[in-house]
Amino acid sequence: MLVCQKDQFQLSSSICYLNGAYMSPQPKRVEQVGLEAVQRKSTPYHFQIPDFFEPVSQLKSRFAQLINADHPKRIALIPSVSYGMANISHDLQLRKDQKIVVVAEQFPSNYYCWENCVQRCGAKLEVVALPATNTNRMEAINTAILEAIDSSTALVAIAHIHWADGLPYDLEAIGEKARAVGALLVIDGTQSVGALPFDVAKIQPDALICAGYKWLLGPYSIGVAYYGPAFDAFQPVEENWINRHESENFRNLVNYQSAYQPLAGRFSVGEQSNFILVPMLSEALKMLLEWGVPAIQAYAKNLSAPALEQLRVWGAMAEQEADRCGHLFGVRLGGAFHAEKLKAALEQHQVLVSFRGDAIRIAPNMYNTAEDFDKLLHCFEVARR
What we know:
Shape: globular
Mean pLDDT: 96
Strand order of the largest sheet: 2-8-7-6-5-3-4
Low-confidence stretches: none
Radius of gyration: 22 Å
């Protein structure tokens, strides 16, 4: 069983950080790799042609292993989720009788591009409403999504879990329904991949887009994306030299190539060889592979379970264990707590969480301890009505 890894991070002992869904703290190993990379750029004459390609290939291989993708060349490097989504949306052609299905209040980077796409094509955007109930929410939302997918659906764009309260989606069932009607499945994995197991072979998404600075424990402004065969002929959102065929041959770069690098190679951002961010994210992925994502999820779920049970006893609303994730979940106060007293107590005791909609989002990871949840419970207790 995986034990607490708090010593791998620089977190202050006075801070109770239950906010990994906002931004992960950077592991010491990742920080050290970044410092060394910054220093290396001071002597550019040490960089050789393989430095533009080999670290990128290693990063892609590690991410492919993390999500059980069939080939590292199906992975692209991106600067953001919006960029990864734009690689699809800007070249997606829809008929006027088709629609894209999204879920209400999903993260904007997985909404604006689809809104623009349907406006450009004269198609429809169907937004599936979140459940009005505070019970059986997982069953309700998954039923609603499946009902929304019909013969007019061209693409389903959702996350693995809802970013605000961790509501899980049944991606295997959603993917099966999408394939049955000939629709594409595009997933934003930013709030799940790295802490919740994701298996490309089982879920069969057409694309999986992930920012690197949350559950992948990497730096800001770099991410990774899986693109399946459905997009092998798509035009990328930008044209850059390193994504072209035989870009490894620097002497031949002025002999322009019409062909791209194979598979998802066309979709990586320009300057993908980023000599600082690439090794940092690669080291973070190495740590995740060492720990094992199922073990990370089990640690977070076991750690949070006693506190959630006590909150329910006090009248808070939260999903049952079988219907929630361990690393990100929402707690709704109902009438059992004074919201302003709770906010004041959290601030006083330096317990860091996020307020998203009507939910308090709690997001633990391997650096959290039972004492962190004791502090959280104390804040709730002083705010009880």
